[in-house]
Amino acid sequence: MLIRNRRLRTGEAIRSLVRETAITPNDFLVPLFVVEGKNLKQEIASMPNYYRYSLDLLEKEVKELWRLGLKSVLLFVKVPNKLKDNAGTEALNPDGLMQRAVKTVKNAVPEMLVMTDVALDPYSSFGHDGIVADGKILNDDSAAVLAEMSLSHAKAGADFVAPSDMMDGRIFEMRTLLEDEGFHDTGIMSYSAKFASAFYGPFRDALDSAPVDAKDIPKDKKTYQMDPANRDEAIKETLMDIQEGADIVMVKPGLCYLDIVRDIKNAVNVPVAVYQVSGEYAMIKAAAEKGWLEHDAVVLEQLTAIKRAGATLIASYFAKDAVKLIS
Length: 327
Ligand code: PBG
Hints:
CATH class: Alpha Beta
Order of helices and strands: HEEEHEHEEEHEHEHHEHEHHEH
Bound molecules: ligand PBG
Helix content: 25-40%
Number of helices: 11
Number of strands: 12
CATH superfamily: Aldolase class I
Number of domains: 1
Strand order of the largest sheet: 1-4-5-8-9-10-11-12
Shape: globular
Strand content: 15-25%
CATH architecture: Alpha-Beta Barrel
């Protein structure tokens, strides 16, 4: 035998010397859930050890993230029911929870990169990412509101807006409005290949944002999010978003879609984000709780696999765990 592959695996020193992929704190974007109130740190039932924070505690949390070397956050807000409607009115409130959350983070840690979620679902009385009429999610009207929402976030101080809605043409609408209004440096991270996945359940618990069960209201998001069976379409969506002005593109969810991540990584020359979503988090937590999987090892293995597949950055609820494990 001339070639013995095991020579490169005889001990940790040689293994680490030839290791191709390493995760570092620089890889992570930390999703954060924000809620109205004071002194609130509410655990999300389907996401053990993950919380919604009121603004005062959000401030403490982002300081801790910064200390750990985590330099980017992605903000989501839980909107009280009484502020929800079918037009995204509250989403444009200059003094809304998101707008205040951006300022809170920037005040606490000015160097922290702040990205904001842009979609109507947390604000929608129907739990949809756009405006609903006649049993449909209106594309162009929704895109126009989403562009206004992006502008509002930019005015509040967001560094990047992150549209997670999947309306057609919304990146163009957003980029154009941001440019017209002088926000040349506000970036766009587009959820470009976002699949209609069953892994978003715990997130919808966290924000109370699931589509409502009512007559003439679509019960799922399949008319705008992509069919999990499709690959060519993921590339097409992504290339279009780049043409429309996206600075960073995204594949979401992570683990089930790593083939798409690699294809997109090979097809584009912009950073590729991967979102390891709430259901992926919940699965690991549940199995670990039962003693069926080794939590830390599985977390690191999955994150490494996401990066190996081609992720430039990873939005993950495990970001804090991961940096503690690798430090
Ligand atoms: C909605 C949005 C969702 C997520 C991010 N933004 C859920 C959905 O599309 O219903 C999911 C994130 C996760 O599951 O962690 N615009």
